[in-house]
Specification:
Blueprint: E1 4-11, H1 17-25, H2 28-32, E2 39-44, E3 51-58, H3 61-68, H4 71-79, E4 91-94
Antiparallel strand pairs: 1-3, 1-4, 2-3
Domain ABM: 7-76
Organism: Methylopila henanensis
EC number: 1.-.-.-
Length: 101
């Protein structure tokens, strides 16, 4: 089975990066209920404190689509847009190499 991914960089307004990271991380309980999402990471950049990355791995493209239309995405996109500098772009991707997780 091919593992697929999703990567979303979020560019927060100046000084809002930590709050954006917190609001995205608050969706974790919804992600934990998803059987097709084995790995979900919220990364707060050290190089740019107003950038947050959301990285997901999925069991299939169908699982990725279910996640993107699920409760976690709904919660995230209902809370963070006023804190963002630009609209986030979702980058669907295929996993090429992996260690752990």
């Amino acid at each position: 089975m091919k593992t697929v991914a999703g990567i979303i960089p979020f560019k927060a307004k100046i000084g809002q990066g930590a709050e954006v990271a917190r609001l995205i991380a608050a969706a974790l309980p919804h992600v934990e209920a998803e059987s097709g999402t084995p790995l979900w990471l919220v990364l707060h950049s050290n190089a740019d404190p107003d950038t947050v990355f959301l990285v997901d791995l999925f069991d299939s493209a169908d699982a990725r689509e279910a996640h993107l239309s699920g409760k976690a995405a709904e919660q995230i996109f209902a809370t963070i847009p006023p804190l963002l500098e630009i609209e986030p772009m979702i980058h669907p991707a295929d996993l090429i190499a992996r260690k752990g997780g």
